[in-house]
Amino acid sequence: xxxxxxxxxxxxxxxxxxxxxxxxxxxxxxxxxLLRTVISAWYVGVEASSASRLVTRNAVSLVFPLPLSxxxxxxxxxxxxxxxxxxxxxxxxxxxxxxxxxxAVEPETYLRMYPEIIIPPDQKAAFYRDxxxxxxxxxxxxxxxxxxxxxxTLKGTIYPGNWDFVIxxxxxxxxxxVDETAFVFHWEYLNESLKKxxxxxxxxxxWYMIEVTNPNIAAEAxxxxxxxxxxxxxxxxxxxxxxxxxxxxxxxxxIVIAIQLVSFLIIFIIMAVVANTMAMTARERIGEHAIFxxxxxxxxxxxxxxxxxxxxxxxxxxxxxxFLTFPAAKIFGxxxxxxxxxxxxEPETIYMDLGAALVVASxxxxxxxxxxxxxxxxxxxxxxx
Amino acid sequence: xxxxxSYSLRNLWTRxxxxxxTASGMAxxxxxxxxxxxxxxxxxxxxxxxxxxxxxxxxRKASEAEVQSGIERLQASIVETQPEIATSKDGKKLVxxxxxxxxxxxxxxxxxxxxxxxxxxxxxxxxxxxxxxLVEGRMPRTGTAEIIAGMSIAKxxxxxxxGENLRFGMRDWMVVGIFDAGNTAFNSEIWxxxxxxxxxxxxxxxxxxxxxxxxxxxxxKVKVRLENDPRLTLDAMRETRYYEKQSExxxxxxxxxxxxxxxxxxxxAIIGAMITMYSAVANRVFEIGTMRALGFQRKSILIxxxxxxxxLGLIGGIVGLFxxxxxxxxxxxxxxxxxFSELAFTFSLTFEIIYKALLFSLIMGFVGGALPAVRASRMxxxxxLRAS
Lengths: 385, 388
Hints:
The structure holds 2 protein chains of 2 kinds.
Chain A: H1 2-11, H2 15-42, H3 44-48, E1 53-58, E2 66-67, H4 70-76, E3 80-88, E4 102-105, H5 107-113, E5 117-118, H6 121-129, E6 133-137, H7 138-144, E7 151-155, E8 162-173, E9 183-186, H8 187-197, E10 204-205, E11 207-212, H9 218-228, E12 236-240, H10 241-251, H11 253-284, H12 286-294, H13 299-335, H14 347-374, H15 377-382
Parallel strand pairs in A: 4-9, 6-8
Antiparallel strand pairs in A: 1-11, 1-12, 2-10, 3-4, 3-11, 5-8, 6-9, 7-8
Helix pairs in contact in A: 1-13, 2-11, 2-13, 2-14, 11-14, 13-14
Chain B: H1 5-14, H2 16-50, E1 55-60, H3 73-80, E2 95-106, E3 113-121, H4 125-128, E4 133-137, E5 146-150, H5 151-156, E6 165-168, E7 171-180, E8 189-193, H6 194-200, E9 208-212, H7 219-228, E10 234-238, H8 239-246, H9 248-283, H10 285-294, H11 298-325, E11 331-335, E12 342-346, H12 351-377, H13 381-386
Parallel strand pairs in B: 3-8, 5-7
Antiparallel strand pairs in B: 1-9, 1-10, 2-3, 2-9, 4-7, 5-8, 6-7, 11-12
Helix pairs in contact in B: 1-11, 2-8, 2-9, 2-11, 2-12, 9-12, 11-12
């Protein structure tokens, strides 16, 4: 008990220095937490994806479509429970800076396959009824203050022209990881318009979403689908939803790695700051430590004192940093909702914060403790200041 | 009377461990600061060099990128007849009708697929892009399944090297040449005969038409004419502007990331410097008292401590820049969110960045040292002499 008291008394002997160090640790932990949250936001699509869903797309690449006629063929394959399809629309609202995902789907099969997208029944019915309608995510609707019944115009980039949509529903996610910034509308609307303006591009879909009866047969089912269309004009590539999203992320890997590196760099910086504080503390107390030794305290006592002090300072700073992470993540998430539809602090981030703090505290105390233990009593007592 | 410069220097030397720790904290901050600037500069350089000012890119209205665009043969022929188009030495118009599609190819060493741009080229495509040079092999013959690959494709993708085969569009394509496009986005592309590629990808339309202007000043004229022609639904823009637009989102992302990181990091480093300088002052109360008693003025003491802190910042800055300069050997390749294709660029160090980073490190030193230096200069002679 006494030793704890001594550690805390020691830690706050130099109020200003301790305060600054704590502030530094808090800022670093805050930054570390935010960067880790950015990384988990990057991977959030992977977490939200289901193991029993497959995505089939053109084997050449995503910009090539698949014929609509594949739908019935896929449905006949063994182990397939449901098939839905969609097309990336890539429309622009106002200008390019106001980006959000917008795509055309076949609504009834799509919503049946994605139970995590929750729409009130009356809005759902209205959405099914009106072919020109669309549903928007809750966050997206909040961002632009859309209400049900509003008419939204998107400028097509892949499909030329201005396209009008009526908002008939606003969806919520069942879990926090569901993207609530998407804009979904009827594939039929797109297709019927294309039949008039660009008949060559009609009756084609961007991808098929496929539900299998049992997650264990997903891999076999994928192989079976691809085999069916082998050597056709549009060969397919079928993956689980998870692999599909991971494929996207792996292409931006360089950025993720950079953010990861930077998040570790910040731990190094704060390590230097805390180590500096501890080095100064230990230097000032060389005389005291010599007296401790004269009184019969052993090396491990002194080591314990220095480590304890380092830990106390770091932990107070870490607690403050973690505490600040949550409101900061909220603000960040709102500002960056264009880039990261989901921005939540995960429990793992907090564990990593604590782990980093432990490492910083130990490394910072290492060298001063070694010096304090090894200095000879006479030398320690002789030193002044 | 001034306090000699060597006093500050020797103070730093006496407390080596603290100096090293503080300076290395600052060095890391400068490293990150410089790295972000270098990255942004590298991206800018890549894009600026990719386009030429007197080239014009024509794509379908509102399509934003070549990949999304489509220009029917008839429309492309109308563009081809514009009088502002420059002619080559042998009297041919400097215009190329091109096809751009994305395909996924596996990288060497891994099976991870990545998006690659395939460009169907005409006979003038190479002339229109003086920055692209064939370094190995020869150009593909028209009407054959031959392709040439950019340097970064040849290096990093399976089957991209000379003499190797790539399979796409139900056909095998032989790589007969490698081209080097310097720092530009073309380095991550594969080029082949446009008519062959249109056939295998079953695209009845070109993606873009590129032409060279007689006189760069005539751009507005030709732009207005093309965009107002009722037979055409096209957008014309200068090639430089086109490539700049392609990476606006990426550039903005780098900027946001860079600014927020630098602010957070520099806060940490300033706190580190402050701790060091405060303790430097606290340890030397007696010394400061003695100097004041000897007749050194408050101002001299303030300057001396500020100088020590600035020196600390400068050391950090130089070390940080030294390590950051090695980043130039490293190439970043990532997905461009706007075009879904690979974009490779290098870190690039310029004098402006060196100067900015050093200035930044000095500012950190100044901000960290200002308060402690003021405290040192305000000390009372008698009280500080009494402290031991």
